[in-house]
Specification:
Layout (H helix, E strand, L loop, with lengths): L7 H24 L6 H8 L3 H7 L3 H44 L2 H13 L3
Helix pairs in contact: 1-2, 1-4
């Protein structure tokens, strides 16, 4: 990871590598793993294959990094997703009781009026 004391050259290299990984992720999403080629990636990024191989030893290494980073991002977001799912589940459990509170002649008449007001 870069920081303020990281030499400029190293930060520039890390930036270019990140851009290559982002481009590879986009191309992988668009073409799929089997159709993904280093030629296509080089063309999309406007660099040579030699440049790509200067950063990644092989197509497989590049794809492993792309997939690994995607999985890491999912794992990082997992607690938030689980919290959201638990909260949503709690609201779904409350839904029948809330519906019974609203299932009165007065509320139904109000809904009917609102629907009629929006008719052409």
């Amino acid at each position: 990871m870069t920081g303020p004391s990281t030499p400029l050259r190293q930060r520039a290299r890390e930036f270019r590598e990140r851009e290559m990984l982002r481009g590879a992720a986009r191309l992988l999403a668009a073409k799929g793993c089997r159709a993904f080629t280093m030629d296509d990636l080089a063309r999309a990024l406007g660099v040579s294959k030699v440049t790509l191989y200067g950063y990644f030893r092989s197509r497989d290494e590049l794809l492993a990094r792309v997939v690994g980073e995607a999985v890491a991002a999912l794992v990082e977001d997992l607690p938030w997703v689980l919290d959201y799912a638990v909260a949503a589940g709690a609201h779904l459990v409350e839904l029948p009781a809330k519906w019974q509170e609203l299932d009165t002649p007065e509320h139904l008449a109000l809904v009917d009026q609102l629907l009629r007001a929006n008719e052409p």
